[in-house]
Design a protein that fits this description.
Layout lengths: L11 H13 L7 H12 L3 H14 L3 H14 L2 H14 L4 H13 L11 H10 L4 H24 L3 H33 L3 E4 L3 E5 L8 E6 L3 E6 L5 E5 L5 E5 L3 E3 L1
Antiparallel strand pairs: 1-4, 1-7, 2-3, 4-5, 5-6
Helix pairs in contact: 1-8, 2-3, 3-4, 4-5, 5-6, 8-9
Length: 260
Amino acid sequence: MNQIYRKKTLPLSLYILLFIFYFLLPVRGYGAQDKANADAAFSSGHYQKAITHYNAALKQGQSAETYYNMGNAYFRMGDYPEAMIAYQRAARLSPANGDIKHNIEITANKTIDRLPVSSDVFFVEWYKAFVCLLSIDNWAVISIVAFALSLICFLLYLFMEQIGIRRISFYSSVVLTLTFLFSILFAWHQHKMLLAKDKGVVTAEMVTVKASPTHKSSDAFVIHEGTSVNIKDSDIKGWYQIELSDGRQGWMPSASVEVI
């Protein structure tokens, strides 16, 4: 009896997944050559040269690792305000990174004010870490592919006659639809987090914080360079309403703060 041999082929869904991982998902680590040069300069003790290369790498794409390494270079140079700025920017991209948080605490202890470092509750940190696990582009690609696959599964559910295939197609469509919705949510939230201008680092040597946004108002307290602040209000031109980690609030000139 002649047997008909059918060529085995990969399912369409597997081809799509391979296409995502190898072609669509952007690879983090832009400016690889600049970063490699920066790491080499850092290892040799040429910290200013390393910072120059880290800045060049960051122009190609932001990276928590690059900001972290640049913060280390500034720290070795004794420039604690710039180190704090770099660490805080690294923390925005990687909120749950223990090394970054540790270095922020060490740098805060090097400043004159030596205020405690504020942090989110653990489940908020976990959520932010998961949101930042992939880039916005990655979440967008996943949402598009999940939507397309969910539509295919739904069509299979409508037109296939086999009960087993229809059942699998229905539940797969539900799961893929939820993946589509959550991917959009994560991309939107990460975009919102990155655009938020709610944190800053004092760059002036000493700043007198005012009770209201005018130089004639009474003095509230004094803070110094390198201190991290939460920006509560930026609507008044030339002024920021800030809050410290110990709860004190006041107004200070916006030129004295580097926004993260």
